[in-house]
Amino acid sequence: xxxxxxxxxxxxxxxxxxxxxxxxxxxxxxxxxxxxxxxxxxxxxxxxxxxxxxxxxxxxxxxxxxxxxxxxxxxxxxxxxxxxxxxxxxxxxxxxxxxxxxxxxxxxxxxxxxxxxxxxxxxxxxxxxxxxxxxxxx
Length: 138
Description:
This protein is mostly helical. It has a single domain (about 5-135), classed as Serine Threonine Protein Phosphatase 5, Tetratricopeptide repeat (Alpha Horseshoe), CATH 1.25.40. The chain has 6 helices and no strands.
């Protein structure tokens, strides 16, 4: 067990992860445009949950999948999820001491979304990415 996770919290997160995986299986049959956000959000949630479980490598991989699958989508809600996935990648990579890779994640976030206007949720993620990139020693 990770040093920072209480057994009860670990169990709760593992159950949440199982529910997320079940949702992803169910969503795999969806083809409507509206389901893209749901799938992206579920994947992003899975990545974050894995990171909370201190399963950083798996979480990083899931966040990379969010970026790969949805990174070019123009719709604002999905852009927020992609930006969040890049931010979480950077945070996890920093936690693993992989500062050069973390810096690349933050730079990718800023390259993709640094100039996007009119979306306060996205602006908040971008601002956090800027702040974390600026504090990176790399």
